[in-house]
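Reviewers of the previous submission asked for a worked example of the structure-prediction workflow described in the proposal, so we include one complete record here. The input consisted solely of the amino acid sequence. No template or homolog information was supplied to the procedure at any stage.
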Amino acid sequence: TKLSTGSSWVGGSAPTASQNALFDSTIQSSTSANNGNGLTVKGIIVTNTGTAFTIKGSANATTIGANGINMTSAANGNNDFTITSPVSLSASQTFNVATGRTLTISGNIDNGNFDLTAKGAGDIILNKALTGSGNLILEDNGGTTTLTATNSIYTGNVTVVNGTAVVTGNE
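From that input alone, the workflow returned the following structure tokens.
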């Protein structure tokens, strides 16, 4: 399954840079999909999928716009979400994760010059290189943000407003 093609989506059209990608109860058995030629969306919304889900990819980025990643309604079942493709931010945004849920980004993250706010009572794991100059703001409200980036070329500021930050890696 390639997320960049319409046949992978309810309604027959892949979301665009001006639309959110919704991962909800229509996911019945698939636990992962490749981002194909790259996926560019305004945001990613994860609700009650009933299963953990992974966006895969090795070369083509998943580009996320101003709506960021919203997992605040991911309340039932195993609604953890993982992105293994490279991630590129096209606007300042928030990754917001509900209690008991985990968002894992295991592809390189390029935040350009855009701010990224990690928020919510759930856990956020950023475990690849972080590049760019936008600020990283941690407003976890009970969650934990884990940065395990190695060989990062990151020049932005990191601000911890609330919650717990765990930083590991060689740079």
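The mean pLDDT is 88. We consider this example representative of the routine output the project will generate in years two and three.
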